[in-house]
Amino acid sequence: MPIDSLIPDTIAAPFARYAHGVATDSLVLTSGQLPLALNGSVPEGPEAQAALCFANIDAILAAGGTSKHHALRINAYVTHRDHMQGYMAARDAWLADARVLPASTLMVVSGFTRPEFLVEVEVTAVRP
């Protein structure tokens, strides 16, 4: 079974030696996406950050030949309980036209690699 690395050039490059996602014959798995824009900026607030994470995930899924309409699972992380509402608003907007809702987990964590990051999101999707 071939495995392809997914590193779309429309989003910020990975921080180290890893791919933003991998695709197999049947699945696409994204790495956790932090809210980093292509120009290096980070939006303020958990909702804007989560929206950027999901936009980056859209690019990775497209590179793997799938889309949010085939998402199986979302794993998300926020740095404070107060960020849950903003994250959930962005997630719900991303899933507004979803045909089937994926499984989802949301965890509160102590932090990420940079203090301005409030949200991280990863998705597993099936390839149609």
TrEMBL record:
Signal peptide range: none
Pfam families xrefs: Ribonuc_L-PSP
Single annotated GO MF: deaminase activity
Highest taxon in the source lineage: Bacteria
GO cellular component: cytosol
Database matches in PANTHER family: 2-IMINOBUTANOATE/2-IMINOPROPANOATE DEAMINASE RIDA, PROTEIN HMF1-RELATED
Family from the record: Belongs to the RutC family.
Protein name in the entry: Endoribonuclease L-PSP
